[in-house]
Amino acid sequence: MHLNGHIMKVDKKTDNNNIREYLLKYGKHWKWFALSVLMVVVLAYFYIRYTIPEYASNASVMILEDKSSSSENAIFQDLGVFASNSRKVQDEIEVLTSRSAFIETARRLNLNIQYFNKGRIIEPQIYPNIPISVNFFSTDSIIYKSRLSANLKIISNNRFSFNENSGLEEETVPKNYSFGEKFTTSLGEVIITPSPDYISNYIGKTIKMEIKPLDQVAQGLKTKVMAIPTEDNSNVVDIAINSENRQQGNDILNTLIEVYKQNIVDEKTLVSKNTTDFLNDRINLIAADLADVDNVAERFKTGNRLTNIAADADIYLESGSANEQRMVETGTELSMVNFMKESLDTQKSFESIPANMGLSDEGITEITSKYNNLVLERQRLLKSSNEKNPVVVNLDQQLEGLRQSMSQSLDNLSNTLKIKYNDLQDRASRINSRIYSVPGQERELRDIQRQQQIKESLYLYLLEKREESEIATASVSPNLKIIDKAYVVSNTPVTPKKKFVYLAAIIIGMFIPFSILYAQDLFNNKIYNKEDLQKLFPDIPVLGELPKIDDKKEKAIKINDRSILAESFRLIRTNLDHVMKKQKNKRNNNVVFITSTINGEGKSFVAYNLALTLAYSNKKTLIIGGDIRNPGLNLFLNGIPTNVGLTEYLQKAEIEVEEIINPIYNDIPLDIILSGKIPPNPAELLMSDRLGYLFDAVTDIYDYIIVDTAPSMLVTDTLLISKYAGHTIYLTRAEYTDKRMLDYPRELFDDHKLNGMVMVVNDVDTSNFSYGGRYGYGYYGTNRKAKKVKKKRFEKVKI
């Protein structure tokens, strides 16, 4: 800074100082903060008191891999063809938390019908010890889609009153019934029976019964239940729910897990059943064919009276026995291929096909297993989605590809077996040519016996596979392991959390008055004390601040006055002296102009009382009414002639300086030059050289010359004569001067248009004093035993 003679240097604010400043700033209003916190804490107490607590229930399960497909999946997962383990677990979570699973859970637990202990404010749910049982005659399909609210007042162990709450309409009139008596409601006829173990506890009490649509209850559960893996790529899933009733929360989780397990068992059982049905159909067909062949053999032997095979045919037949055995095996496998091909071609949609048929081609077996697994996964997804789901569409594409691949593989295998079978037939023909000598009956009989062997082998094979399928059906188990059944995590409710609620209440209680005060400060455009001015003008000295005084009190200070006003002027006098001493060689160092931005900021008041304060210290002082447009010093003076003043001196060359100087008091060295009459051309008069002669004449006579000038923003008068000033006190008024107007004095200071510019704040409320207002602002009085100035009990909120 390039200012000489600063008596009050404004240091740069540190963070600690800023914090202290805000604490002091808002600490004045501690009563409002305390009251707000108290009120919000009371509200928090009632919130905790009348909010039904919720408790957390948890369960843990492990998703197991399907053993029948784990080996095949491992082969294709490395190639990215099938979903990874984390994707598989996520898919299972979607199935576990599907809407259909929650509907079944709500149905099993009858959650669509809820009972509450009706109270004046809170209504806790009654579960599981429900004192009544409601039995509707309407079908479940109607009840599951209906809505009903009713009140039941238990009169005795045998009687109760019932009335429905019909929504927007008025409640129906309560009617008395006996337990077990049939009566009519909006949902049809109903019978209510008591629970002997619990009904006596509710005599005289009212039970509120609510029936909601099952799908709405399921949707509510879906939003409350969370299922997430414990870690990435982990098969362990944590399932959680927050419930007002601890037992109900546990029951919901346990039932949901059981529903999921049952769905898995049902799906696997369906695949096994389809395989068994297929095998039964084939067994019936083969049994009929075998019976036909047996009948042919019986009729052939009977018609030809054959009892034994010719001994000479055995030699030829032995050579062909091995070939015939291979033909039997090849024919059996070819029949199984045709059976599978027929099953695959007759499917209208994606359905499971028989697996483990014992074909020699392992590739077909692997594709069949993978096809069935994808069909199962598709059916499970369709329970909670539709065929347009991208995942289902992707599965359809994979299934179609597998079906085409399987069909092609079966065709290839069938062609291979046919070629092999034809080769065996050719070989058989060559062998048969060697036994032409054998009677025709023997050849025909061997043909019949060969057909018997083929049909019998196929029949026994199908019986074996059916037994395996039935064993698999009986041993179906879900790919889920329960690690922890549902349990209550803690007896401490998760909501409401007392510590959190009270902490939030304290924060909110502090925030409400803070936000109000901050908003007032944010939208406030006025200054209130010296600190506000120092923030705006850190490089301009502030001599001090003057307190607000009662309009009814005397505005001129007295000698030996010990009021806060007098002490404030003494402080300004001291600071002004300090400035002057630092610039004692300055021209017109003892000339002090007092100006402001606009009218009403107290220039004349400050000028007169500052002059009095200087005079009371035995300093010869002259006060000049420099505002010739709107004289203000006349209000403080009585009996002093006002016909000759500064205006007349500037207008008439014959008037000497001594003629316009008037003493104010006889006992103190204070003189005055009044403004005189208001001229028509004040600016031109102030440009007169006679004004310079005036200051030259009085500067050597008086210790201090105080000049009450015009507002600098409204008229140019002050700027015209500012060259005669050694120092300029720029006056602002608390709660009056707009901060936006203070850009003007900043411009004056930066452009050096006012000599020795310093500032003073006038009319400051004592509660806003920079120091005194915060620390009791001292003791002031009119006697030696000082009286402490007390703050008002309720002060206006200002920042």
UniProtKB/TrEMBL annotation:
One Pfam family this sequence matches: GNVR
A single cellular component GO annotation: plasma membrane
Transmembrane residue ranges: 30-48, 500-519
Entry's Gene Ontology molecular function annotations: ATP binding; protein tyrosine kinase activity
Coiled-coil features, chain-numbered ranges: none
Superkingdom of origin: Bacteria
Family annotation (InterPro entries): Bact_polysacc_biosynth/exp, GNVR, P-loop_NTPase, Wzc-like_C
UniProtKB keywords: ATP-binding, Membrane, Nucleotide-binding, Transmembrane, Transmembrane helix
UniProt cross-references to Gene3D superfamilies, sorted A to Z: P-loop containing nucleotide triphosphate hydrolases
Domain Tyrosine-protein kinase G-rich per the UniProt entry, residue ranges: 447-519
Protein's name in the database: Capsular exopolysaccharide family
